[in-house]
Amino acid sequence: MTDAEAPVSPDEVAHAETRLDVPFTVVNLVTTILSCVLPFWFSSASAVTAFVVFYTVTGLGLTLGYHRLFAHRAFRVPLWLERTIAVCGYLAIQRGPLFWVAMHRMHHRHTDIPGRDPHTPQEGWLHVHFGWMQRRRADVWTRELYHRWVPDLRTDPFYRWLDSESRDYLAYVGLLLASWTVGGLVGAAGHPSLRFDLRNAWCFLVWVGLLNRVAVLHAFGLINSVCHTYGSRPYRTHGADTSVNNAWVAALIFGEGWHNNHHAFPRSARQGLRWYQWDPAWYAIVLLRTLGLARQVHVPSEDERQRRSADAAPVPAPASGHTARDH
């Protein structure tokens, strides 16, 4: 890793300013409140079904794509499929892959160290679910700094194009309009007397446009709050790392709740390492491999698992100077 690709230095962290992002705070709080209230007033079978489908598409875009494929290079796919998966993740409205992957690699390098880990529960659960996105540390949100964590991705013109917060707002507005329009057309399809079902349009906007973003955002937030607080630790991890396995979170977010497994073996494409550990993102990777679309799929051997088990000797901290692939 060259100097230009080096992670943010301690001096840069020490002098990093924190600012309140007012526009994002307003949008996030308003849409979160609306997502908690409006589903009780606007719901339909087609809207709830669309929510489940869209939650699955965007959730797998993040778990299988942003996380396992991009952040850890746990497997490889053809470029056309890689970008398709990236778009699925982008529709969750959690920024483009450059920012998301940079934050995750920073989290692995400085796990549970306040002021270094972007979203550690050591600074409170409110910080994990809201604060770190609204009160913005310069070393986290400055493009020139977070790009240092993604030397393997930042040269791709498509991912650089997605790395724009103003474009994120436009994408969100477009998603709201699209969900409203599709909902009206779907509702009308079941009623020959209607050209456009206005009520179903609002149901889709609420469930697909509003609720999905909030649900996926906080499901991932649970990985950084619950999965660093409540659960089991079958494997040793280094430093201040408090990662744990939590089956409830794994059920909510496609197997990502086996977080201690993941921190022990970051490059593993499989996070539910036991047969009974529910891991839909892994099942999707197996399907891609069976179809010949996934290759270089990394899974730790049984010997590797035994050496890192909680009953084995302590795991040493990683050596300095390892590359982005090691995060």
Keywords for this entry:
327 residues; mainly alpha; two-stranded antiparallel sheet; globular
Characterize the main sheet. 2 strands, antiparallel
- On the 0 to 100 scale, the average pLDDT is 91
Instruction: Find the count of extended strands (DSSP E, 2+ residues).
Output: 2
Low-confidence residue ranges: 319-327
Distance between the termini: 13 Å
Q: How big a fraction of the residues is strand?
A: under 5%
Count of discrete alpha- or pi-helical segments spanning 4 or more residues: 15
Widest beta sheet: strand line-up? 1-2
* Helix content percent band: 55-70%
Radius of gyration using CA atoms only: 20 Å
Overall number of structural domains = 1
- The geometry reads as globular
How does the helix and strand content classify structurally?
Answer: mainly alpha
Q: Your description of this structure?
A:
The longest helix is centred in the middle third of the chain and has 28 residues, at 198-225. The protein is globular, with a radius of gyration of 20 Å. The protein has 327 residues and is mainly alpha-helical. Helix content is 55%, strand content 2%. The chain has 15 helices and two strands. The chain has a two-stranded antiparallel ribbon. The chain has one domain.
